[in-house]
Each structure stands twice: as structure tokens, then as C-alpha cells.
Amino acid sequence: MPSESSSRTRPLPADRFLNREVSWLDFNARVLELAEDEKLPLLERVKFLAIFASNLDEFFMVRIAGLKRRQTTGLTVRSPDGLTIREQLERVTRRTQDLVQRHADVFIKDVAPRLEEVGIRIVHWPQLEDDEARRLREYFRDQVFPVLTPLAVDPAHPFPYISGLSLNLAVSVRDPDSGASHFARVKVPNNVPRFIPVGPTDDTATFLPLEDLIAAHLPHLFPGLDVVSHHLFRVTRNADLEVEEDRDEDLLQALERELARRRFGPAVRLEVTESMDPQILDVLLSEMEMQPHDVLHVPGLLDLGSLWALYDLDRPELKDDPFVPVTHPRLSEGETPKSVFATLREGDVLVQHPYYSFATSVQRFIEQAAADPQVLAIKQTLYRTSGDSPIVNALIDAAEAGKQVVVLVEIKARFDEEANITWARSLERAGCHVVYGLLGLKTHCKTALVVRREHGVLRRYCHIGTGNYNPKTARTYEDLGILTADPRVGADLTDLFNTLTGYSRQTNYRMLMVAPHGIRAGLIEKIRREARHAAEGRPSGIRFKLNSLVDERIIDALYEASAAGVPVELLIRGICALRPGVPGLSETIRVRSIVGRFLEHSRVMSFTNGGDAEWWIGSSDLMHRNLDRRVEVLLRVCDDTARRDLARILDEAMAPEVRSWQLGGDGSWTRTGDVDFQAERLAEVGEHAG
């Protein structure tokens, strides 16, 4: 077996990384495979079609927008896999067009006919019966026509601004007297349902797309003119904010100014129907300063993200069986809730959502703290939360009760900026101390600290998790969290909050690794320690469960560990830039991905460490943004019961028979196994709680 020094000095091949953008598209292709899976309930397949579309929207708004922005600088920057920006965009364009075609085919040729068989139909105007058409004419007159604004394009009327992700009709009209043709745009309003019920929605449901209704009534919008043609299109714009953080300017004001600019970001994608008139397409490209390679031709309906409306139908027989998250058995006695504080004095509690209830664990922890007269202070980070947030309400109650409440609200959380600004102001009005994090960094860690007086002594209780304090996503995202009264963790969180709210420059902690200073270096040291154990014949092994693995230095450390003979098992839901199973490079590394009913979101790191295993959980994926530009926290899990629970979760998730996708060294993903890990986990937790 090669020694650590020989493996570390061996040159690594230049082609050792997979392209991150293509890897992300591969992830979304796995989502699409679930929409194609005939074993899934029909409306669950509809849900995955909608998720695929929404994912792709965000990919273009952020990732492709970022590539295009860098392309305009003229720099010949290459990605770690050696591609120029132009080459990356070309590869992404080809792959995206293939996926969009496949996405449309699944809906048009498979899912839509099956929906029709069970009484759920999407029809077009010519298919309506006379009485249906009459009712919808009245609906158009009363509910739609008043909010429409046809916008002409001519020397007196400049080309209108096209908002991002809006549906639009490009309309060609002709003056019957002069024969002159004109171009106009009609925006499909986003405050009217996309799919309009044609009749009652009970055992059967028939819908007409809103754009069809508008198209059928275009003569009402252009009286006296002949409507020659109409074509649907949709624009995606750069929505990635770049806030210039100036020490002399209020960050809140800077962000609000940038949010106002976001909707005017440059266009990065133009979706058109296959019937789009080439001349009208040329007009759109010219007016929006886009190129032909920015166009995606979409068969059938545009914006299948709107299919959520069908999924929301009350047809339980077409969906997964409902489930109710259970209360962790240590947090209740029968139906009676226990004091979270009393429970944590007996030992840590590891909760895995959505299997264990967020409401009766993490949320109850904050609510009990807010109501407890012995609690003196609550400190918490908030990255994303729900619209009507019980967490925020509890913090407001605590402040109004006279407790010291410190909340770090990350107002730069992408696409939640406006909501978080609103929360920040509500918390401030209630008397909470609200801070917005550190200059140049996003605060992404999920931490809460409660200080309680007990018998004249102050005791600290903590929560550190992998997911947001969001009761809504906690029902669909798989996440882990530790509730603990370990004084070492309490001391660490105290130091961390002092760093976040004050001028402390502390970087060393007892039980935590904290980015941007400590996580990459800490993990690489532990990976190299496993290589030393393997080289010296001691037990070694690495198991990571992540959303994404992109960081080149950590990937290279894993390659070096593989060369030393360390078994490496990686469970990565999304992007993976590492090539597993390559002879001489990564023979001992296996990468798999689970995509299913719940979004696998937790981050877990396990090191065999010569037989004295280490377990870590936290908020950080292994990407540049997490390790260099965010405040992230990984917690070392020391409670024996929690460690056994983590080991069981990873053992079951990584079992060979589990339904997953396996990554090959060439970047291809192959579906394997037939056991639904998430369904098995639901049954296991339910039985344990019962």
C-alpha cells in the first residue's frame, strides 16, 4: 500500500474534475426520471415535472446568468475541468435543450394522457362545448379583460419591458384599411390562475390555460384590427444580486436598492413554442439583445412549473400516502409534551425531519424558551423561514416579555431577501436586537442558544441543525438537528454569537468547525488522518452525506486518501465534481445520490479514525461559497445515542439495495436498487415512536 507521502506527491490528472454545471443538469435529470417513473402515483409524477421546471428556472437565473456575466468581462477563465465559459455554455445549451424536449415528451405523451384517463384534463379553446365557452367568455369579461394591457410596438411606443418568468403573447395585427402590420405584446397576468376550471373540480377536473383564453379573445384587445397570429414566449433574467457592501452604508438600504434593480437584470433565456414565427422571434431577440443560442424551443405548454395547481387537487388516491411527523419519544410522555430543558439535562436529542416533527422539537424548544420566566436570553440565526413563522412569533413574544433576544437575520438569502427584510423590521419593532451578519459573508449556519437561570447558575441550551428554521420546508426537506445542553457547545455558540454581533475574530472552537476559517482546513486534516491510518494498517474510512461536492482541495484530499486505500462512501444529492472509481485515482471511492419524496438536505461527515469514530453534522456543503464566503457551522456529535442514530441512518441510506443513482468515473449516473430508503425510514421512525 502506498505511503501517505508518496500518494500526496503523485501528480493528479488534469481531467480529474467533472463540470459543475453539467453535474447540476444531471441532478435535475434525476428529478425528471422520477416524473418518468410509472411506479409513482400519478400526481407525484406531476409534482416532479413541476419541480424540474422550477429548478431549471433558478439554474438559468443564477448559474447561467453568472457565466454570461463573466463572459462579458472578456476574461478567458477556465472551469476546474478545463472548459472556457463559451464551451461550458455550449455544453449546457445542448444538454438543456435535450432535457426540455424530454420533459415536454413526458408530459405530453405519457402523464397528460394518464391524467385524462382519471378525469383530469387540460384542454384548448376549440375543444370546449358551447356552454363551456359561454361561461368562460363571461369569466374573461369579468376577471381577465380588465387587467390586460396590450402594448403596441412602433416609433411612438418603444418595445416594452418584459419581466422575468412572465408568460407573454407576441401578437401580430394588421390594419384592414392600409394593410400595415404591427407588433404588440400582451402579458399573461400572474395574479390570475394559470389553469382556469372549465367546470366543477371534484371527481373530474377540466382546465383551460389562461393564455388560451386570452388568445381566443385577442380581437377584444385590438378592435378594428385583424389578428394575424399570436405566439407565446417567456423570458428568464439574471436574478443573482450583487450587493456592494460598504462599511459606511446601511446594508438594508443597499439590498433594497439592489432588489429594485433585480427585475431589470439582463435576459439570459428565451423560451418559445415550437410554432413561433421566425420573424417575430427575430424581433424578440433584437429588442432584448439576445442571441439565437439563448432560445429554448419548448413543445406544448410553457412553464410546467405551474403544474403545482394540478398537484393541489384533492385526489389523495393519486398521491403518496399522507404521513404525520411523530414526536421524538424523548420529548413526550404519551400525549403529554415534556420540558425540552429537562430532557436535554439527561442527554442530547438528535432529530431527523420530516420523520420527527419540527413543531414538537425545534419549534417547541424556542417556544418554551420564550414562555419560560427562567430564560434570560435567546440568540438565533435566521436564514430562511416560513410566511407565518411561529419561530419569529416566539422570538417577538420573548422580547416583549423582557428577555434579551438577539437575532441574526441573513437578509441576503437568495430569493428570500424581501421576506427577511420584513422579518427583520418586525423583530426590531418588538425590541429584539437584530443584526445582519458580517461584511462580505452570508450567515448560513443554523444555530440557536438559550440562556436559562437554574438554582442561581446560568445554563446554556443549544440547537445546531442542517436545515432552516422553517416549519413548512421541515415537512418536505430531510434535515438533522442536535438539541443539547453540553456546556462545551454552549460556550462555543456564545463565542460564535459574539463574533457575529461584535468585533471578535475568534476562529478556534471546542466542538465546532466554523467557516470561512475552519471547515476546509479541518476536513482536509481529518481526511489526511484517515490516509495515515490506512497506510499504517489501522481502521480507516470516510462517509459524507452532502447536497454538493465541488471544492477542488477537498476533492484532491479524497483522491489522496483513496490512493492510500481509504474506503470513501459519498451520498451526494446534487452536484458532484469528483470522479469516482477511476483506476489509479479514486478506486476506493463510491458516489451515490438519493432523490425521492423528501429533499435529502442534511450534511453529515463520518471518519473511522482508527476505530475512534468522529461524527459531524452542520450547514455546510463542500463548495467554494460555503467554505469561503459564508459563516457555516459543523458540530462534532459526541452523544453516544446520537452517534448510533447517525450511523444507522447512513448505514441504511448507503445500503446496496437502496434505490439510488450511482456515479461513474465518466460522469454518467446509473439507477440502482429498488428499496425506497425514505419509505423504510418513515416506517422505522413510526414504529420506534409507537
TrEMBL record:
GO terms for biological process, alphabetical: polyphosphate biosynthetic process
Amino acids binding ATP: N55, Y477, R573, H601
EC id: 2.7.4.1
Segments forming domain Polyphosphate kinase middle: 132-310
Entry annotation: catalytic residues: H444 (phosphohistidine intermediate)
Protein family membership: Belongs to the polyphosphate kinase 1 (PPK1) family.
Species per Swiss-Prot/TrEMBL record: Blastococcus mobilis
Post-translational modification: An intermediate of this reaction is the autophosphorylated ppk in which a phosphate is covalently linked to a histidine residue through a N-P bond.
Record-level GO cellular component terms: polyphosphate kinase complex
UniProt cross-references to Gene3D superfamilies, sorted A to Z: Endonuclease Chain A (3.30.870.10), Polyphosphate kinase middle domain (3.30.1840.10), Polyphosphate kinase N-terminal domain (1.20.58.310)
Cofactor: Mg(2+)
Domain Polyphosphate kinase N-terminal: 17-123
The protein, known as: Polyphosphate kinase
EC class (word): transferase
GO molecular function per UniProt: ATP binding; metal ion binding; polyphosphate kinase activity
